[in-house]
Design a protein that fits this description.
About 70% of the residues lie in helices and about 5% in strands. The chain is built from 19 helices and four strands.
């Protein structure tokens, strides 16, 4: 009789664990669905649809729990952007632009982050979502490396070698964003735990993901990842940061110099980062021209901007003749096409031009408040906040990357999930409570 009872626990334990994870599984589902191929020119993706169901599930779950959904601080942090976005929507050129712009901004910066805050209950849930980010990055990164090695990626420099994952050449930043989030999440998981096994696995994942990140040829993603991971290392301890920096430099020398992994192309791309005043390439010229156009729109409409989704309509009236008609995209199974430049590729300038100072203070001000709260809780939390390094890193990466990119494309919903994780770590009471089962895993 003793033998069957001893054998039964392994068969029964997974069911309670799965049942306990049910509330947060919709968040994981949004992340997982980003691994599916994206149809060219698709207005919506399965991940976007899942994010809508995620918001609905958060409302139903919170109502059934009969508990206060948000703290006062969280309500203010997410309420202010909603006000600014609504005012900007009222100034849109057409009702269609107002509705689609309002829905997109609320989805990314309010609704999905709030849903994540409501559904992530403790560090065990946060760990599940963070590892799902790493898993998605490994999947997209593996596809990207295969594209580079087989010459089936997006076109770059006359060769189809740019790693883009399943996102295609029309969203060259998609895989770079996913992989960079994976690097930052894995780095935070490695630094924020005493469990030796998790440290080794997370650090190995972070190092492995550096290869597809390099092959994405995304300068903005490189800069944001280096700064975010550097900040994580410094927050974890200066001595450890120095050791890791030395190891990273040695690994880079071996990978690029010794093994010749895309050495010439990477060197050219790295050199172009500093060529902003001396013989910049056309992409840099276009970016600065678009930034200047956005600033011009703001000067004409300083308080409320030109309205949501109105940047393309006002672009030609404020851009110089140096701006090209668009960028050529192709490869990765898609035909070549001319893609118009419809945004300034800077989230802060996009908000400033379309929403004015009111939008910048409410939307970007909410991000700043979130960062301050996250860093403050990280500093005061001690070992109870061992996953705050990962969530703070994701927020830092997003805010730095916004200097070179804005919302758009299928990967945008992942930005919303990461903002939600950072908000949970910074504002949710459950972020400071560690489940009892976690201590036994160390």
């Amino acid at each position: 009789m003793s033998t069957p009872s001893a054998a039964s626990p392994p068969l029964v334990l997974p069911l309670p664990a799965l049942r306990r994870a049910v509330p947060v599984l919709p968040v994981v589902a949004v992340v997982v669905l980003l691994g599916l191929p994206v149809a060219p020119d698709s207005a919506a993706t399965p991940a976007d649809a899942a994010s809508g169901l995620l918001v609905l599930w958060a409302v139903v779950h919170t109502t059934r729990q009969a508990r206060r959904p948000l703290t006062r601080t969280a309500a203010v942090v997410f309420g202010l952007p909603a006000v600014g976005i609504a005012v900007a929507a009222a100034g849109a050129l057409t009702p269609g632009d107002a509705i689609t712009g309002l829905a997109r901004y609320l989805q990314v910066f309010v609704l999905v982050p709030v849903a994540v805050v409501l559904l992530v209950r403790d560090r065990r849930d946060a760990r599940l979502v963070l590892w799902s980010l790493v898993g998605l990055a490994l999947w997209q990164g593996a596809i990207g490396v295969h594209q580079y090695l087989t010459g089936t990626g997006a076109s770059y420099g006359g060769a189809e070698i740019r790693a883009v994952g399943t996102f295609g050449p029309s969203d060259v930043m998609g895989m770079a964003t996913v992989v960079a989030y994976g690097v930052v999440a894995a780095t935070g998981l490695a630094l924020g735990t005493r469990a030796r096994r998790q440290q080794i696995v997370a650090a190995g994942c972070a190092v492995a993901l550096l290869v597809p990140l390099a092959l994405s040829f995304s300068r903005g993603a490189w800069i944001a990842t280096a700064l975010a991971c550097g900040a994580q290392l410094l927050l974890a301890g200066v001595r450890r940061a120095v050791a890791v920096f030395a190891a990273a430099v040695a690994a880079s020398v071996v990978l690029v110099g010794g093994l010749g992994v895309g050495a010439s192309v990477l060197q050219e791309r790295l050199t172009s980062i500093t060529q902003v005043a001396d013989a910049p390439d056309q992409s840099v010229v276009d970016r600065y021209t678009l930034w200047s156009a956005a600033a011009g729109m703001w000067r004409e409409h300083p308080v409320t901007g030109v309205g949501l989704k109105a940047f393309p309509a006002h672009r030609d009236g404020h851009a110089s003749l140096a701006l090209s008609s668009g960028s050529d995209t192709g490869g990765a199974g898609q035909a070549y096409r001319r893609q118009p430049l419809l945004s300034p590729h800077n989230m802060y300038l996009l908000v400033l031009s379309e929403q004015g100072l009111l939008g910048l203070l409410t939307v970007a001000g909410g991000w700043l408040a979130l960062l301050v709260c996250a860093l403050r809780r990280l500093r005061l939390g001690g070992r109870a906040q061992n996953y705050a390094l990962a969530t703070c890193g994701l927020l830092l990466w997003t805010l730095i990357n916004f200097l070179y990119a804005d919302i758009g494309g299928p990967s945008t919903v992942l930005t919303a999930v990461c903002l939600g994780l950072a908000a949970w770590s910074a504002l949710a009471p459950g972020a400071t409570a560690a489940p009892a089962a976690e201590s036994s895993a160390r």
